[in-house]
């Protein structure tokens, strides 16, 4: 019998999440004109049932809602600070994309939600995000709060060895582009470069501003 490794399981879960995102968009195509149609690469028009309200705790220990966090276009990622490679690489890429956009005159905020409620304190999150970017916002919360945010964005995570202080956590690795009031509009996979992400986000922001937002 073939043994499925944790890494293989995580990859399979990420593939299922990505497929689910695309299916959700395809299933939810509506009749309204899509202001972002010319920008889309990963998803197809309409209003998706991805994202929604949440209540979490920011890196300064303050309770915040999604309305407090998403005050401008944002790049949202779910992960954890103890992650040995994927999360630092992905968050660094997101921070680089935000820097590229800043140089072009676009103000975009990287946001990092930790799924590691046992280890990622607000203080630890602040250290992590400060290293990544002074603009990055770190969020955590109770198990229930984080699980609710994860469900809203259709993400996956699973603690491999609960109670082990060195445990790894399997999790999906998409980055979400979220706009104030509108919510989720696009996702980016791990193979998207910072430059590619910046180009795509700029298109979305231009369309958003062009619609008078």
Note the main sheet.
7 strands, mixed
Mean pLDDT: 86
Order of helices and strands: HEEHEHEHEHEEEEH
Determine the N-to-C terminus distance: 56 Å
Report on the structure:
Cu cation binds at residues 83, 87, 171. Residues 45-210 form the Thioredoxin domain. Belongs to the SCO1/2 family. Disulfide bonds join 83-87. GO terms for molecular function: metal ion binding. There is one protein chain. This protein has six helices and nine strands. The strands form two sheets. The protein has a seven-stranded mixed sheet. Helix 3 (86-103) links the parallel strand 3 (74-79) and strand 4. It has helices at residues 6-27, 66-69, 86-103, 122-132, 143-152, 194-210; strands at 55-58, 63-65, 74-79, 109-114, 137-140, 157-159, 169-171, 175-179, 183-188. The chain has one domain (6-210): 3-Layer(aba) Sandwich (Glutaredoxin), CATH 3.40.30.10. With 213 residues, it is of the alpha+beta class. The radius of gyration is 17 Å and the shape is globular.
Topology:
Elements: H1 6-27, E1 55-58, E2 63-65, H2 66-69, E3 74-79, H3 86-103, E4 109-114, H4 122-132, E5 137-140, H5 143-152, E6 157-159, E7 169-171, E8 175-179, E9 183-188, H6 194-210
Parallel strand pairs: 3-4, 4-5
Antiparallel strand pairs: 1-2, 1-5, 3-8, 6-7, 8-9
Compact summary:
The radius of gyration is 17 Å and the shape is globular. The protein has helices spanning 6-27, 66-69, 86-103, 122-132, 143-152, 194-210, and strands at residues 55-58, 63-65, 74-79, 109-114, 137-140, 157-159, 169-171, 175-179, 183-188.
